[in-house]
Amino acid sequence: MPVSNPVTGPVSDGSPASDSGHLDISRRRLLGTVGAAGAAGLVIGAAGGAGIATAVSDDGSVTTGAGGSRALTSVGSTEVVFHGRHQPGITTPLQARGHLVAFDLAAGAGRKEAAALLRRWSATARTLMAGEVPSGDTGIALDAGPSSLTVTFGFGRTFFDRTGLAARRPAQLDPLPAFSSDAVDPKRSEGDLWVQIGADDALVAFHALRALQKDAGDAARVRWQMNGFNRSAGATARPMTARNLMGQVDGTNNPKTTDPDFDRRIFVPTGATGAQDWMAGGSYAVVRRIRMLLDDWEGLPRERQERVIGRRKADGAPLSGGSETTPLDLDKRGPDGKLAIPDNAHARISAPEQNGGAAMLRRPFSFHDGIGADGTPDAGLLFVCWQADPLRGFVPVQRKLDRGDALSPFIRHESSGLFAVPGGAAEGEYVGQRLLEG
Ligand SMILES: C=CC1=C(C)c2cc3[nH]c(cc4nc(cc5[nH]c(cc1n2)c(C)c5CCC(=O)O)C(CCC(=O)O)=C4C)c(C)c3C=C
Ligand SMILES: [Fe+2]
Question: What pTM did the predictor assign?
Answer without folding.
Answer: 0.88
